[in-house]
Amino acid sequence: MTVTAGARTAARTRSAWVRGFAAAAAGALPALAFPAPSLWWLAYVALVPWMLLARSADTARTAARDGWFGGAGFMLAVHHWLLPSLTVFIFALALLLGALWAPWGWLVRRLLGAGAGPRQAGAALVLLPSAWLMVELARSWQYLGGPWGLLGASQWQVTPALRLASVGGVWLVSFVVVLVNTCVALFLAVPALRRPAVLGLLAAGVATASVALWAPRPHARGSVRVAVVQPGVVATPGARFAREVALTRRLAGTHADLVVWGESSVGADLTSHPAMAGQLASLSRQVGADLLVNVDAEKADGSGISKTSELIGPRGVVGPTYDKMRLVPFGEYIPLRSVLGWATSVGKAAGEDRRPGTRQVVMDTGALRFGPLVCFESAFPDMSRHLAGDGVQLLVAQSSTSSFQHSWAPAQHASLAALRAAETWRPMVHATLTGISAVYDAHGRPVGDRIGTGASTTAVYQVPLATGVSPYVRFGDWVPRVALLLVLSALAYEVTRRFRGPQPDDDLLPVGAPPRPVARAGATRPAASGAPTASAGPTASSGGSGGAKATPAAPGSRDARPEESP
């Protein structure tokens, strides 16, 4: 008997491991919708295998575990290019962040599992996308890694999706993508509920088409010439600076209005290096345009290292400078360094924490007002939205990604500029050290050609400007707020239902419960458990004069309950 019990435990353990790996693989599938594969259409069905697995779970705990491991698989797949930098930390972080999807996995089983009825199907079409948004919102907190890999970001090159983003940000795109996945899963898993699944798909299509056709659009107004300087792969900060100077000199006579260098393009504080500051001012005079550079160095006042965007004119620094506010965990600082500082010995974690800035700024060349963002910050929708609300005409992101040249990271990063432009109705320039550099107009459409990874060159873009305030800028993050309200309302309903007990008209049965018997005309209600039942009356068929006797209800069955008064 002991051997049998041990064998059963081992079998359950093996089954749990197999199911865990299956959930992780299913969760990793949506990563293929992002650049570099850019299989954007896959996003609309990529969640289906994960959802079908979670709904098949025999217990709520198993479904939650499916959500957890699936989330870990997604996090690992969409951030796999961080493995050389984070080493073993990437697996720990994936498991930590994957836990955010555990409630989502439980909810999939609760609403799509055995015994699902029309009301559950209707609730699933609203609550599963809403719950997904809660996960995206939670992990968007910069201290949990930030909003890299939001599902809606996979649709950066799809025009109708960009129109949705102008109304509700990337959050609305994510909601629609998860809604479509939910409809497909419902259609495949519960044949009896295919009608609400089809209606959900039609609703998603009609809503998207309506926004694409009739939502307000930005108004074109003039253009500006922006030059991007991309030095390419260079061994040292000094050699990089020399290469950037040489490339910038080539821009003389191009009539650029602004010249943009990438993140960490200057390796010394300009206050303590007047010769370097003078060289940049001289470049500005030669080119006839202000230069936007990014200084990655120890501050002259000894306050620490920061990544500072500075606008250089013919006479030196112009206007306010901007210190990067949202730093990359482990890349630019180590959380709880006193505990996790050993990460520097096993990966490429920051040897010294950068100092974050405290406020966003608007820079002005006299002819152009623009808002700077540094690298990772282009992933945060709220930062570009606030700059648009402050009246900028152009968004400028200075980036690097030099450590990830041969990965999916450069393409993923460049694609974010299209979303930010569409959300805010402000064109965006994404300038890097080593590529991919790209420019997008106020609709999120590409302007000119991208500068690929490894290229060492310059490019001048005629960037169309636009006016107007997008619905997303005007109303902010209304989509996640509505989603939160829906989730909290459902939670309150669930708690209330459990306290008051099941009601006769409540068809939201616990998952796995058998359906209630349907009363037939002429049938009598079964008597209480253990009591004899009356014989059925004659049937209405032409040949029958008598009927079979009813079978007594088994003790403990659903039908063995006392007669209810009318």
UniProtKB/TrEMBL annotation:
Region (Disordered): 501-566
Membrane association type: Multi-pass membrane protein
UniProt biased composition (Low complexity): 518-557
Subcellular location: Cell membrane
Keywords recorded for this protein, A-Z: Acyltransferase, Cell membrane, Membrane, Transferase, Transmembrane, Transmembrane helix
Enzyme class, broadest EC rank: transferase
PROSITE patterns membership: CN_HYDROLASE (PS50263)
Chain ranges passing through the membrane: 16-33, 89-109, 121-141, 161-190, 197-215
Keyword Cell membrane: yes
Signal peptide residue numbers: none
Metabolic or biological pathway: Protein modification; lipoprotein biosynthesis (N-acyl transfer)
The keyword NAD is annotated on this UniProt entry: no
EC number: 2.3.1.269
Domain CN hydrolase, residue spans: 224-467
Annotated function: Catalyzes the phospholipid dependent N-acylation of the N-terminal cysteine of apolipoprotein, the last step in lipoprotein maturation.
Assigned protein family: Belongs to the CN hydrolase family. Apolipoprotein N-acyltransferase subfamily.
HAMAP family xref list: Lnt
Protein name stated in the entry: Apolipoprotein N-acyltransferase
Species name: Actinacidiphila polyblastidii
